[in-house]
Amino acid sequence: MKNLVIIPTYNEIENIEAIIKAVFNLPVWFDVLIVDDGSPDGTAQKVKELQQLFPSQLHLEERKGKQGLGTAYIHGFKWALAKGFQYIYEMDADFSHNPADLVKLYKACLEEGNDVAIGSRYINGVNVVNWPIGRVLMSYGAGIYVRFLTGMPIMDPTGGFICYSREVLETIPLDKIRFVGYAFQIEMKFNAYLFKFKIKEVPIIFTDRTLGQSKMSTKIFQEAVFGVVMMKIWSLFKSFKR
Fold this sequence. Notes:
Helices cover about 40% and strands about 15% of the residues. By secondary structure, the chain is an alpha/beta fold. The chain has a single domain (about 5-235), classed as Spore Coat Polysaccharide Biosynthesis Protein SpsA, Chain A (Alpha-Beta Complex), CATH 3.90.550.10. β1, α1 (about 15-25) and β2 form a beta-alpha-beta unit. The longest helix has 18 residues, at about 135-150. The chain starts with a strand and ends in a 7-residue tail after the last helix. Keywords: Glycosyltransferase, Transferase. This is Polyprenol monophosphomannose synthase. One of its GO terms (cellular component) is membrane.
């Protein structure tokens, strides 16, 4: 077992079958783990039906209640490490991340020797489709803010399309990750950066969802704004040796 794509879900019945099959149609073998937070729309049930078609490749972890993106990924990371996966990916269920780009992330780690590969919306200009200009400016501005405070040379620190090597997730103290929304994505990258892992941004085109509802909220954005300050302060008092 080598590649595991973790897809957190909450009410993704309109997208879940198509996104799973798109991953399984790629020329590189990827397992998929769905971490579902008790979706009332039947997302988990649909995954169970698809497991009859892909019994060895499709996995499901069900949790009770909506517990947040960050905790879903931490749950998935621990599951992946326990099962022996080498490369672990974060990807949204709504096709905002093109499944075909998983191969780019895979090659950036396996063939180029990087520890973290980030599917970046901003490494080659602004590559975002179907977002209002206000949200683009907010997202791009967040990157400037994060780089200024943390010193990370990452153009898309809030992005959620990522490949982590096993060593990275074994090194980062997952139980001490504090945030659950955009700040979770920043915190994970900041830890990888402080532990001096090799990070590469891979250009992608991000397309806003066409089906289902966005999980973005003011609370999540506020967590990122204030969370970055806290991360920087905490980093001054921690050791990052491996």
